[in-house]
Amino acid sequence: VHEVSIMESLHEQLTSLARANGATRVRRVAVEIGELSNVVPEMLHQAFLAFREVEPLLAEADLEIRSLPVRVRCHSCKQESDAEGFRIRCRLCGGTEVEVIQGEELLLRDVELEVDSEGGEP
Amino acid sequence: MIIIKRVMESLLRSNDETARILHHEWNESGTLAVNLIGSTGAGKTTLLEATLPKLRDNARILVIEGDIETDHDAARIEALGIDAVQITTGGACHLEAHLVEKAWRSMEARGPYDLVFIENVGNLVCPASYYLGEHLRVVLLSVPEGDDKPAKYPKAFRTSSAFVITKIDLQQHFDFDRTRARNYALDLQPALLTFEVSARTGEGIDGWVRFLKERAAAHMPIPA
Question: Is the CB of A24 inside 8 Å of chain B's CB atoms?
Fold first, then answer.
């Protein structure tokens, strides 16, 4: 269970983004979590709620988690397909020489920040 | 006023940055770093005890031990006359790069080292998410744990380059199908190399040691 550690790291990133943009509040946080990332979206959400209770910067923030299934591109047949569970192989031809093109994400995609009308640092 | 900022950064950015610094330093000094991941009781320290005496004549070795509490594991390694440093995480279920960096900084002056083994906290889940700057990630699974574990803990197997099945001397007491374990793991990572060992009888240890020697020899310092 390392979602709290990941939330700590996200908290640091949000604090520095807020500072850099002269923001007083974070309104929305959008993250992408691949199925191979080893992070359980519900647990990350719980960790976020716990931080929100004690961190004024996040008091009105929502966390939007986009869960991404595993997709592969096959070197043999050149097609893309969804992996079947955690079997990292081409679903169309069965080839094992594949590249994972989606599913390993652990990404802070974007944030919505509330800034004073004068704006932050340029 | 509300502004939207596109970020597109890893949620583990600060860990990964520290890990890349370590990786770069180890490349320059020709130090091969190996991250050992496995459950509590999988036999990580015992595998090191069987492995290190066969490597020590050709390589200067440091072991970084990660545990929640106690320095028992570092003491076991030091008893072999090999440099070891203990990290106690005080509750955290995995090592993070900044902890490894701190441990490395406390020891690097005693080097140079050809090999650094990082024994992660006993856990097949969380350690898999944290890059520690290693060149080789090795996942251990012991026979008593069951052959279906690769399917249940995919990330550890997905991100490793070697898979060591330990305690094969206990095979007769358990329904552990090694082919099944290997196939589950290969479904996740087709390039995975598998080793089957018993630290107690010594079976399979030589092949595993040969693999480490070859990797260490191939990992020469990068000329400045």
Answer: no
Asked whether A61 and B45 are in contact (CB, 8 A), the reply is no
- Is the Cβ–Cβ distance between B138 and A68 less than 8 Å? no
- Taking alpha carbons only, the member of A85, A73, A81 closest to residue A35 is A85
Distance CA A40, CA A46 (A): 10
- Closest-CA distance, B216 to chain A, in angstroms, reads 27
ipTM: 0.85
Q: Does A96 sit within 8 Å of B190, measured CB to CB?
A: yes
How many helical (H) and strand (E) elements, i.e. helices and strands, does chain B have? 8, 8
Residues of chain A neighbouring B94 (CB-CB closer than 8 A): 2, 5
Residue B120: closest CA among B107, B136, B106, B132:
B132
The tens place of each residue's pLDDT in chain A, 122 residues long, gives: 689 999 999 999 999 999 999 999 999 999 999 998 889 999 999 999 999 999 999 999 999 999 999 999 999 999 999 988 778 889 999 998 899 999 999 999 999 999 986 544 55
Nearest to B188 among A9, A88, A97 (CB): A88
Give the C-alpha separation, B205 to B221, whole Å. Answer: 27
Interatomic CA distance for residues B105 and B147, integer angstroms:
38
Digit-coded pLDDT (tens) for B21-71: 999 999 999 999 999 999 999 999 999 999 999 999 999 999 999 999 999
- Comparing alpha-carbon positions, the chain A residue that sits nearest to B15 is A9
Residue A106 pairs with which residues in a beta bridge?
A33
pTM: 0.91
